[in-house]
Amino acid sequence: MRRIILVVVALLTVVTWMYYSNDAAQTEQTSSKPVTVEVVTVEQGKLREQVHLLGNVFSAHSVNVKAEVDGRIDTIAVSSSQAVRAGQLLVQLDDRHQRAVLQREQARLDDILRQHQNLLQLLPKGATTQAEVDRYESQVAMQQAELALAEAALQDRAIRAPFSGKLGLVDLSPGQLVDSDTVLTTLDDANTLRLNVPVAARHLGRIEVGQQAKLHQAGLSSRIFNASVTSIDSRVRGESLNVYIQLSIDNQQAGIAPGTLVTGELDLSASERVLIPLQAIAYNGDRRFAYRVNQHVAEKVELELGQRGDNLVEVLSGLNAGEQVVNKGLVKLHDGIEVEVLN
User: Fold this and answer.
1) What is the separation of C-alpha 42 from the centre of its chain, rounded to a whole number of angstroms?
2) Rounded to 5, what percent of the chain is helix, strand, coil?
3) Distance in angstroms (rounded) separating the CA atoms of residues 92 and 211
4) Domain 95-156 class in CATH
5) pTM (predicted TM-score)
6) CA neighbours closer than 13 Å in the CB half-sphere of residue 302
7) What count of other Cβ atoms lies within 10 Å of the Cβ of residue 127?
8) Which residues form a coiled coil (predicted)?
């Protein structure tokens, strides 16, 4: 009986040993199988960075039309929302008094000129003196100045468009009394619009006059139009550390009204950089790594990173353009492991 028990125990020992030996062999075979990964090539390129723009557009030229002098409206020569050209008459004030003054000053000048001419004819005959001639020449100059003042006063009664553009509301009536503070209407040259927006001063070296931006009317993202940087402010605002840039918009293409709220993005200029996808980065605390593939072996390399874009990040050190790094299958990797590249 004892011998039987010993035989059974020996058989169980042999079977157990064979089982675990076979399992270890399978485990070793499984663990030596390469890890499947996908790789990407480290690129040399430009990282797209943008600044957000938001503001209200305004006309390149815009004025509140006012009279130079007080007076009563005689004629309203335009209507609301009318397109006008530079120099076109908008409103005429009663100018009867100024016309009478102009005629009087012109008559005085004509009289002085006649007397001056007579003196010039008498001077060679000795019938007058050079001093008298000189006195009349002074009177001629003075009267010409008086006539110029009368002409200017008459012109002040005619309010004309200072530049070509489109009028706002014209809410006036003939006979209405106005003064130099009364806004008769508004005038905008809306063919070109301007937009002043702040950007961080740290971006100054990456924004240049002539750069293009994409804008759209707030709430209407499908309606996109172009703008270009026309000027950059020379001062940085102390509290915000921002600097203002001005963009110009061809409103014949955009077709929006002055005062419209617009938003958009401006691409910052960038130099060539070493770039990898964000998903190719492994993290360990505050350290960043990537797995470089070299002859089917994954090499763990530590990275120093720079600027980030939407899906790419700049590599300052650790990788070179043209090398391959793992971007899918990082979880199973460690330094020196054999890999099988699927792509």
Assistant:
1) 33
2) 30, 40, 30
3) 45
4) mainly alpha
5) 0.61
6) 4
7) 11
8) 102-153
Strands 165-167 and 177-178: unpaired
**CATH assignment of 51-60+189-268, among 3.90.180.10, 2.40.30.170, 3.20.20.140, 3.40.390.10:** 2.40.30.170
- Rounded-to-integer distance, Cα 80 and Cα 168, Å: 6
pLDDT tens figures, 100-117? 999 999 999 999 999 989
Specify burial of residue 267 (Cβ count, 10 A radius: 0-12, 13-18, 19+): middle
CA distance 197 to 50: 14
Do the Cβ atoms of 184 and 66 come closer than 8 Å? yes
Token pair for 81 = 């929302």
Distance between CA atoms of residues 155 and 152, nearest Å: 5
- Give residue 314's Cα distance to chain centre: 26
Q: In terms of Cα–Cα distance, which of 191, 266, 198 is closest to 226?
A: 266
Contact 46, 270 (CB under 8 A): yes
